Amino acid sequence: MRGAPTILHLDMDAFYASAEQAAKPSLRGKPVIVGGLGPRGVVATASYEARVFGVHSAMAMGQARRLCPNAAFLIPRFALYRKVSDAVMTLLHTLSPLVEPLSLDEAFVDLEAGGTEPTVEAARAVAERLRADIRAATGLTGSVGLAGSKMLAKIGSEQAKPDGLVVIEPGTERELLGPMSVRTLPGVGPATAETLRRAGIHTVAETREAGEAELVRLLGRAHGGSLFLMAEGRDERPVVAERDAKSISVEDTFDVDLTDRTRVQLEIARLADRCVRRLREAGRSGRTVVIKVRRYDFSTLTRSETLRGPTDDPAVVREAAARLIDGVETTAGVRLLGVGVSGLADFTQEDLFAQAAQAAQAAEAAQAAQAAEAVQAAQAAHEALGDAGRPPGPERPEPVREGAGEASEDAEKPRRWLPGSDVRHAEYGAGWVQGSGVGRVTVRFEEPWSQPGRVRTFPVDDPALQPADPLPLLRPDANAAAEAEAEAEAEEAGGPDGPTPGAGGPEPGRGPGQPVTSRP
Question: Which end of the chain is more exposed for a tag (fewer CB within 10 A), N or C?
Fold first, then answer.
């Protein structure tokens, strides 16, 4: 741990919900809850307006609806959140080469490694500038903690929320930590906290007073020893720029338990494809395929298969996951499925199983071609002789094109419009889904930089209404518009020497930021 507060912890304020409020003018100042909207959904983020009602992250969505029924309940839009996160992380990297991202909205920064002078005043100035830059680049706010260690910097950012800055100066650590709950310390979860509670230890001060020997007796040498150091305010963990992922995985929780075996297999195949997409986006490959199954009674099991070499081939991962799920009994009901890949590498080796499968497919294709040629030859000979004995009747129907039935079936299915998703209408422009049901979808048409927009309702299959990509939170030409408006004002005023002779006023109906047209 360092004496000077040069470890910075940034935590964006209610990130997902704040991004949704910034994107949707009609929701600003109102309770917004983002997460899974099904019966088994979980709250990802709640705005500060919703937290007043007791809603918090990781709460069951059903409970959140009971606590705050008038909130806007929206699906997450990770495409938008990643863009905003990239902009924030870019700003952090201008401060130091040592940036340790923890999630899309949270990171540690070692300011000293970036050349910041190890003083309270210099660190505070950098943090204030960072907060202003984040607001200018994204329109959102972040809270910052500054301290001599990662643990204290994170505690500082929690105390700074929302939209604040807390500096924990050297020498104040023990006094600050003393009255806090022992759950404040990293590594203290419910089980550890319960063990300490039974021993009469509730606060950080009581943890410190218990002594290292007692904590080792209660929790073991490694855990007890590290906990005592943290209770003393000492945290030696460095900021690590590269946090190498050990695995990449995806999972889904289902609103209704899956009991149909075919449906389970289809979901596993879909999850395998999603997992491979994430694997390729990260530029990685892996050699161990893992599935996760949580049954109706919440019992959870995993199964894994290690391949002969790293792969990012979706067919290989899909086949391995299918073999693994075949060995799991799922007919009693499954509430969650997941597929992951571990043993990650930066290169891909040709998988021998895939090569064998391709060879087998080639052999089967050759045999099929030979058989087809034989059938055609026999048919030609038969037609040459004539088919006098064939009974009268209709000609054989044309074979159905593969996939034609599926395409027409999909075309007949109504589109699903989930609350919060982006849409664009051919006449009314950009908007977002407020809700849908009984064959109708309600859309509010507004943009992040507009006034709250009007609401309109359409049939769910209206061809003029289409899904759309998220709009940026700030108007792309905001700077250009501001400059144009400033130039227009300067032209109207005629600069520091007064109005320019012969220059007229603004054209009737000129909007903000539009240039002034001079009249002769």
Answer: C
Average pLDDT, the chain: 83
CB neighbour list of residue 114: distance below 8 Å, 6 or more residues apart: 95, 96, 97, 98
φ/ψ of residue 145, rounded to 5: -115, 135
pLDDT of residue 4: 80
Q: Which of 146, 128, 144, 162 lies closest to 45, judged by CA?
A: 162
Mean pLDDT value across residues 74-99: 96
What pLDDT, in 10s, does the model give residues 142-155?
A: 999 999 999 999 99
Angle between helices 314-326 and 261-281 (to 10 degrees): 140
- Distance of alpha carbon 34 from alpha carbon 161, whole angstroms: 19
- Choose, from 20, 106, 112, 173, the residue flagged as catalytic: 106
* Statement: the pTM of the whole predicted model exceeds 0.90: no
Which range is least confidently modeled, 135-139, 410-414, 459-463, 506-510?
A: 506-510
Annotation says 267 is catalytic: no
Statement: residue 180 has pLDDT above 90: yes
Instruction: Tell me which amino acid residue 209 is.
Output: E
Rounded to whole angstroms, how far apart are CA atoms 517 and 520? Answer: 10
Half-sphere exposure for 336 (CA within 13 Å, toward CB):
16
Residue with tokens 């520091």, as numbered in its chain = 496
HEC string for 455-512: EEEEECCCCCEEECCCCCCCCCCHHHHHHHHHHHHHHHHCHHHCCCCCCCCCCCCCCC
Amino acid at 144: V
